[in-house]
Design a protein that fits this description.
alpha+beta, six-stranded antiparallel beta sheet, transcription
Amino acid sequence: MRDETAPVRDERETGGRWRHHQRHEHLAPGPALAPWVDHLWAVDWDYPEPYAQKVPPSASVHLTARDGAPPHWHGVTTRHVVRELRGRGRVVGIAVRPGLARDLVAGAVSELTDTGRAAGGPPGLVGVAALGDWLAARLPDAPDAAALEAAAAVDLVRDDPALLRVEDLARRCGSHPRRLQRLFAEHVGAGPKWVIRWYRLREVTDRMAAGRRIAWAPLAHDLGYADQAHLIRDVTALLGETPTAYAARYPPAEIL
């Protein structure tokens, strides 16, 4: 029997049905943007009835323009947010390489964490190419040494799934945990502990989105958790819903 007190889930967000209403595009940056940018993206949607879109946390700073409005900077998001999509719309964006946003946002990247502000650009940048051209015209000649150091540290975290502790990251960087904390606050927008956890948990969400088999106990061990309960707790905190509820957004996966 269904629990009458439980909230009724919007069927459009389960089983991959949201793909009938949304189109996502990811593009590699061109030569001018490549030193600074991870990727460019666009999302189009068509919802006759309002839809609550859950957006997971992100370790990147994004430059976005929605429906031709002036562009905005959005900082690292350490928790999920919900945005209402209604009717037809389009948002284009640029994900800055973690560690390289300070010169672009003109200040410590941590000041932008979990918030946003106008980027000072004109309206009408409705395409990815137009937004990219606008940003490219305003880029410094090259990232400074501290930004490159921060970006290299994040790259280490991204590329090495066995890297689980801030102390180990600091040693790999030839640095000290406290200095790494300051570097990440200035250039990344979140602390190294959060960044490590985000990349490790992204491996989990990527597996769920791909419909891959998930064996929680071995995965928890691989990611440095004491047990699967602690891993599931962190996934739930990151996404704002249980792994089972999140996985239901996609075609069925095998969850053990």
